[in-house]
Amino acid sequence: MENEQHIIINIDYIDSKMEDADMIQNDNSSYTTTRPSFINSLDPSTSIQQISNSPIDSRESTTWDVESFLNSENRKVTFENDDEIDEGAVEKVFMAINIRKRKLGCAYYAVVTSTLYLMEDIEESSPYDVVNLLRYQIKPSVIITSSRADESFIQILQSQDDTIPAQTVVEIRPGAEFVYASAKTKLFSIRLANQQMENNKQEIYLQLSSILNMESVETICCAGALINYISRIKMTDELQDNQLLEVLTIEQFSFSLQIFEDESHPNMHMQTKFKEGLSLFGILNNTRTVIGKRLLKQWMLRPTLDLAVLEERFCTIECFLKPDNLEISNQLASCLKHIKNIPKIIEKMKGKLNVKDWQYALQFTFYCLKIRNLLRELRRVDNVKILDRIKEIFVVSDLNDIGSNINDVIDFDESVKENRIVIKPHIDEELDHMKRTYDGLDDFLVAREISTTIPTEFASTLNVIYFPQLGYLITVPLKPEWKEEQDFQINGLYYQFSTATIVYYKNDKMRELDEYLGDIHGLIVDREIETVQKLQDRTLEHVPLLLNASAVCSELDCYLSLAESARRYGYRRPFLTEENILMIEKGRHPLQELCVDAFVANDTQLVGGRGIINEENAERDEENSTTTNNFYNSVILLSGANYSGKSVYLKQVALITYMAHIGSFVPAGSATIGLTDKIFTRVQTRETISKIQSAFMIDLQQISIGLRNSTSRSLLIFDEFGKGTGSTDGAGLFCGVMEHLLKRGRNCPKVIAATHFHEIFENNLLSNSLPITLVTMEIVRDDNDEELTFLYRLVPGRSTSSWGTFCATIAGIPNHVVQRARQLSQLFSRYESIPPQFNDDREHRSYATCELIARKFLELDLEKKQIDVDGFLEWADRECFGTRLRPLTLTLPKPLVEFCNKPMILHQIEGLVKAGVTDIVLAVNYRPEIMVDLLKNYEEKYKVKITFSVETEPLGTAGPLALAKEILAKDKSPFFVLNSDIICEFPFEQLRDFHAAHKNEGTIVVTKVNEPSKYGVIVNRRDSTLIERFVEKPAEFVSNKINAEIFPKMATDYQLHAFDLEGFWMDVGQPKDFLTGTVLYLSNISKKQPQLLANSAIDKYVCGGNVLVDPTAKIGKDCRIGPNVTIGPNVIIGNGVRLQRCVILEGVRVKDFAWVKNSIIGWHSTLGRWTRLEGVSVLGDDVAVNDEIYINGGCILPHKCIATNITEPQIIM
Questions:
Q1: Which residues, other chains included, contact 382 with Cβ-Cβ below 8 Å and sequence gap of 6+?
Q2: At 685, is the pLDDT very low, low, confident or very high (cuts 50, 70, 90)?
């Protein structure tokens, strides 16, 4: 095996995924050694000779025409399950790992390949990044480590996240198992598949030294502990699924990060299956064999630095790409389809093989010879060393001997029929004699002879059958009336046993046959097993040939696979050099170009070791530099708009470099790539909730690994490092990393970094004198259409903006969000203050009110001895939307508070519109613009014009009329005057007609009350509607009709009439009256519009009637609601809730078993479980009441949380 150097790849994610190593699914099918044999006749004179051993060499000579055998239609062997490998199965892997004195060693054993892998020792310390990467790459089933390891190291091994298999078991083994001397002894004790038995210790040591670095002490110790663990498992038979623990090969691997990931099956019942999606491995893997696929995966996991190896791979791929060799390449690929997993078949030969395995072995020998012949026809095969290896390994005589042995001995057609391995005739004379005897048995004459000795009713249905171990039996169909044992008795026959349909007997003739012939079928099977075992022994003599031939077939499969990908996708041969450069012309991303209609190729020019050159290394640098390289730097800073292709460019450079180091052609016009020892990337964060670290901490760890392990020959790819923290800290960290790398001088690695930190350039955070190449992705901006066109072309220079808002529009972000983002971006850029934003009008109004009160309070001179606090409070009461319906009016003006799921003012507007009103004047004394948006919708809906009459100071009822004089006086049409907190049926049409009939100046609506002493009343003429005078709250009865407004002057002039209001009326300006008005309103609609209320016949929660529920509200189970309850939009009522005589406004959530009576629950409030509210309690906007709280008469201001009981009426501020 070649002792190669390998690249350390640390790639967190570069659009490349691949599945885990294939898992061989053991074939559990067994040979069938017994079967029923139906006999029609038997010659009693037949004798059975004593079976003697007949050597396989005594067979008759035959001509092996394997091709005709494989191609013959009547010889095609099919199997129910022809899949040799379950490629989605999870591989069983044992890993030993240990650290001592900062040296990390690791070894692992893959059961599926029977291969022991050993790593070279490397430096490692806390936080053990390399350990986590090894766990992620190898995905071990079991991890063993020393009990002497540090506790923090063991905790890392025992930690779990979604990148590590959840079923991984960590076992702590005694430190004595990790001893170098004993570990070497255990390694020397392993007998490999191609190792001669007579090798002495010195020869074994030399052989292992050519494979392994025996100076990697910790890794050797881990290998010894792992071999000891495997031996213990083998002895205790703890391994399941009949998997064999044998070490066929030993390989050394350098630390590398598997840049591929599995995609689990979408079916939850097949989560152990994996498939390969769009990935680098997916497009390079065109292998036809399982062993080829596994080898290609090893190539991709172990990029090499050996120029000779890479040159051989390039030359071989180039040979297969030549047009003259295309047909031969296709034929070779067709032959490889028939090459199966020979190492696994050889491993199974230590037990037993089934028919399918022998078929595969036969195919392997034939197609190996065919491949050897095809390769002779290749043209222009300079430096194609695999041809020489095939000529050397594919020994025609040995392969022909193996194939002839298998083909001459095994009868595949009969084997499939018998579901066991059947031997051909003329191989063993005694076996042939037994088969002739067995096949010549005829039970028909025997059955006829027996039928003459039993009752005639059974004679026509009996049969004679043979069961191995049981002998010859007579069968008779079971009759339904046979129940007891005596029913089965037949003269001349002895009952043996019965099934559901057949009864089995013996007689003297059957016993005679048992004694005379015995278990001949079992003897035949045993004899055939002995013959097959001899065939296996002869085949095992050629194990080195078979393993080497299988290995070279897998290598040929990889070359053909890479050549096919290069031909299909237009890849070119790269030129690898010892010079530390990276020159790519017209490079492409191998995956991205498959997902777009047209891909824009870009160039890359980097030279390693071109950092800040000081006096100490300037002279040496001049010696190592070339004229061409002086034009290029080691660091490229890439800026540009989002969506412009920066990340794709970064990944394509890393992938092209990586592909060149596995021996693949690359997606580029041309590429000159210096040997690169490591690739470190910070491209995409693998976030997981199971990790303690934040996303930014994971980014920092990735950067830390790159800084600590990179050399001048390394390639570092950073994509927007620093974006996970504040812009100032992020930009500072980014600049610090760049300066650190540049200060390495001749040891500066090749770096490509993309960033959106434009302040780096604007504020000169990185000096212009630094050897940095600035590039950007070109865009075209259309200022008129405010659009961007992405050209995806790399050009010199830098970008001044990321154009994030344009990209947000492309991504489908709502336009109002994008516009707001642009406003904020402009404000940030000008360092201006940001005005507050509100979710809705209610927040806006609350903010405006609070701002006004705060500013008014700041105007008070608190140093004065006498402060007009009362005046300030009076002003606040007047200006904050009224005081009587608090705390609801702290959020909304009173006219907009919902009464029975509709704003108060809307009840009036609908009545006015119905009466033909076209102009509405709303008299307010504070900030009418707050109501504009809502009332504007009403204007459009009802086709009316709403204007505002604003009072700068209170002017009484007539004040707003005077202020609206110009509107009211535009014509002589009558107008209505009403208060916004009055609720009734609003008979505006009748009032209009009544007013027109009496032809006087005014009409006032009056209604009868039970206690007139609480109100101002009117006195009218007897039998007339004309009002004579008003009386303010009379001490003795003069009338029981109250007026909504007082116009004494009109009454004095006898120009005012009274209109009696029928039905209900209520001033709902106070909480108690609000609830009373709700009762009256619901009672009225129950008589006139009952369909608006919940139907107790359908809605089982209705209790007592008069329940108004918005269609969007949700009612739980077992609730009792009513009477006189209104429930607003988007309300959620839990289970078992009791509501009575209450108002539930929009967005309220009432949890299970709450009890509410005589209360108003404000918008978006929450009542906890088992809460109880009563006594005219009023909750403001967004009040939260905890579970099991009692509130009696509480007036709770908005945005409060109630955690204690309120037993007496009070205001909670």
A1: 315, 319
A2: low
Phi, psi of 1008 (to 5 degrees): -85, 145
> Contact, 421 vs 532, CB < 8 A?
yes
According to DSSP, the residues that pair with 507 across neighbouring strands are: none
Provide the pLDDT for residue 1126: 94
Q: Which of residues 181 and 1038 earns the better pLDDT score?
A: 181
- pLDDT in the model for residue 605: 92
Closest CA to 635 of 723, 718, 724: 718
Chain centre distance of CA 678: 30
- ∠ CA 428-431-432, rounded to 5°: 85
Confidence of residue 861 (pLDDT cuts 50, 70, 90): confident
Averaged over 1143-1172, what is the pLDDT? Answer: 93
Backbone CA torsion sign across 1086, 1089, 1093, 1098: positive
Q: Rounded to whole angstroms, how far apart are CA atoms 1003 and 410?
A: 119
Query: Which pLDDT does position 732 carry in this prediction?
Result: 81
Confidence of residue 831 (pLDDT cuts 50, 70, 90): low
- Interior CA angle at 210 toward 209 and 213, to 5°? 50
Token pair listed for 765: 């955070």
CA distances to 397, 923, 931, 1160 from 895, rounded to whole Å, are 105, 11, 9, 16
Longest dimension (CA), the chain: 150
Looking at the predicted structure, is the pLDDT value of residue 1041 above 80? no
Pairing mode, if any, of strands 471-477 and 463-467?
Answer: antiparallel
The single-letter code of the amino acid at 307 is L
Rounded to the nearest angstrom, the gap between the alpha carbon of residue 714 and the centroid of all alpha carbons in its chain is: 32
Two tokens at 622?
Answer: 């001049």
- Residue reference for tokens 């018998």: 418
Strand partners, 250: 116
Using DSSP, state whether 195 is helix, strand or coil: coil
CB 811 within 8 A of CB 666: no
What is the per-residue pLDDT for 186?
83
Per DSSP, the three-state class of 98 is: strand
296: Cβ–Cβ under 8 A, 6 or more apart, which residues?
Answer: 281, 284, 285, 287, 557, 558, 561, 562
Q: Assess whether 76 carries a catalytic annotation.
A: no
- Backbone torsions φ then ψ of 174, nearest 5 degrees: -60, 145
Displacement of CA 1180 from its chain's centroid (Å): 43
Phi, psi (rounded to 5 degrees) for 978: -150, 155
Write down the pTM of the prediction.
0.55
**What pLDDT, on a 0 to 100 scale, did the predictor assign at position 842?**
58
23, containing H or E segment:
strand 23-24
CA nearest neighbour of 1161 among 1077, 1172, 1170: 1172
Catalytic residue among 417, 914, 1033, 1072: 1033
User: Which one, of 640, 1051, 625, lies nearest residue 807 by Cα?
Assistant: 640
Report the chain's C-alpha Rg in angstroms.
47
Q: Which residues pair with 316 in a beta bridge?
A: none
DSSP secondary structure string for all residues of 396-414: HHHHHHHHHHHHHHB-HHH
1182: left (phi over 0), alpha (psi -120 to 50) or beta: left
Phi, psi of 353 (to 5 degrees): -105, 150
SS3 637: strand
In the block, residue with structure tokens 């292992």? 208
